Amino acid sequence: MTLIEQFQQQLQRQPHSHFLIALSGGLDSTVLLALLAKLREKQPHFQLRAIHIHHGLSPNADDWTRHCQQLCQQFSIPLIVEKVQLTQGMGIEAAARQARYHAIQRHILPQEMLVTAHHQQDQTETFFLALKRGSGVSGLSAMKTQSAVFNFTIFRPLLPFSRQQLHQYAIENQLSWIEDESNQNNQYERNFLRNQILPQLRERWTYFDQAVQRSATHCAEQQQLLAELLQPELEKYLDKTHRTFDLTDFSQWSDLKQKALLRLWLETLQQPMPSTKQLEQLIQDVIFAEMDRNPQFQLGDKMLRRYQHRLYLTEHFADLRQLSLPVTLNQPITLPDKLGQICLTETPTGVQAMWQDYIQPLPKPEAPISIRFAYSGKVRNLNGINQDIKKCWQAHNIPVWQRNRIPLIFYGETFQSAVGFFQNFI
Predict the structure, then answer these.
(1) Of 34, 194, 211, 397, which one's alpha carbon is 20 to 30 angstroms from that of 126?
(2) Domain that holds residue 418
(3) For residue 143, how far is the Cα from the chain centroid?
C-alpha cells in the first residue's frame, strides 16, 4: 500500500472535510500540504486552507514565508500569514507554542480542524520529554491522532508514518522545503533528543519508535479508562458550564482521588495539565486555605480561584480598581477588559443604566456621573439600614474577584449603584 493510500485511510476515519493546515515550510508540513492537495483531487468536497506563523526568530523568516506562499500558490490553497510576538517570561519553545495556538485560534473557522504534520519520530520525542518531566499516564500518552486545545480540534494524520517515509515521498514527488537552522541547536530539549540521544537508540533497536508508540497508546488507553470510570463521579461536582468545581466533599477523598478528579476537570476544560508540584500547591494553598481567605493560583493564562466551597476557572483579569470613567448621558461607553458596553439614558424620572442583561433605574443626577470598579464604604438598603458593601456582595453570592468587574455608578463622590445588583438608597 502506498503512502497516499495509507494517508487516505487516515482521513476516512473521521467525518470532517474542512482543514486548516499548519504550514512551516519544512519537510513534514510540505508533505502534509501535498498529500491533502492530492487527496482533494479525489475528494473535491475537501476545503483546504493553510496558516504560516511568522515568529521572527530567524533571519530567514521572511524567506520561509515567501516559500510557503509559493507552495500554496502551486497547490491552489489559500494561505494565512500571521506574524506573532512571543510572551516574555517563559522559554522560547513554550512562548512560540503559545503564540502559534493563539494565532490559530484567531483564524480557524468553526467547521475546520487544524491539521499538523507530527509523525512517528515526533511522537517518540514527545514521549521522552514527558518522561523527563516525570509525567503520569496522561503525559506519557504523548500525542493523540485527534485532540482538542484552545477550543479547536487538532488532527495529526501523519503519526503512523516515519520521517523516512515522508522524506521518500518528498523526493519522489520533487517537493522542495526549507531547513530551519535552529533544528541544529541542541540547547533546545527536543533538538537534543533528536540529534544526540534518539539516533543511538534507533541504531541499537531498529523498531524503537514503533515500541514507544505502542507504550504511548497503552498509556492513552489507561487514561481513557480512568476518565470513563471517574466521569460519573466528576459530573456530580460540576456546574452546567463545567467552569466551577464543588469542593464540599473534597476533604473526604483520598489524595489520589483528589488529584485525579482535578486533572480530569481541567482536561474537560482543555487546560494545560499542572505538574505534580503545581497540583499539590493548588490543593494546599487554594483549596485548603483558611475560609476567610480568597486564594488564587495561576495555571497557564488562566486563574484558579476559590469562593464559598467552589473552585473557579477564570481569565487573568486586569486590575480596574483605580479606573474612573466619565459618563455622558445617552452615549454608550465601551468598558475595559472585555466587559462590554454600558449606556446611561435619561428617563422621565431619572436615569436608566443598561449593561449586559441588566437594567438599573437611578434617580436624577445632581453631580457629574462616573463609572468605577471599586468601593469600600457603606450602602443603605431599601429599609434604611446601612451596611458594609461587602455584605451586599455576599448577599448576592458575588465572588470577590468579580466584585471589581461590575460597573459602579457614582454621582460625584457618592456611590449610587452596582449595576444589576443593588442600589444605595440615600
Answers:
(1) 34
(2) 324-423
(3) 17
Residue ending a domain, choose from 315, 334, 352: 315
Closest CA to 314 of 328, 300, 330, 333: 300
**Residue whose C-alpha is closest to residue 76's, from 103, 110, 44:** 44
**C-alpha distances in angstroms, 291 versus 278, 295, 310, 392?**
21, 9, 11, 19
Q: Name the domain boundary from 199, 215, 231.
A: 215
Q: Which CATH number characterizes residue 274's domain?
A: 1.20.59.20
Is 24 annotated among the ligand-binding residues?
A: yes
Does a structural domain hold residue 222?
no
Please check if 138 is assigned to a binding site: no
139 is in an annotated binding site: no
pLDDT digits 0-9 by tens, 267-308: 888 888 888 889 999 999 999 999 888 899 999 889 999 998
Q: Which residue(s) pair with 388 in the sheet? A: 378
Residue pLDDT, tens place only, 209-257: 999 999 999 999 999 999 999 999 999 999 888 889 999 999 999 999 9
**Is 28 marked within a binding site?**
yes
| Phi-psi category of residue 360: left, alpha or beta, with phi > 0 → left and psi -120 to 50 → alpha | beta
Within this chain, do residues 329 and 308 fall inside the same structural domain, yes or no?
no
What per-residue confidence (pLDDT) applies to 89?
A: 64
Contact 333, 325 (CB under 8 A): yes
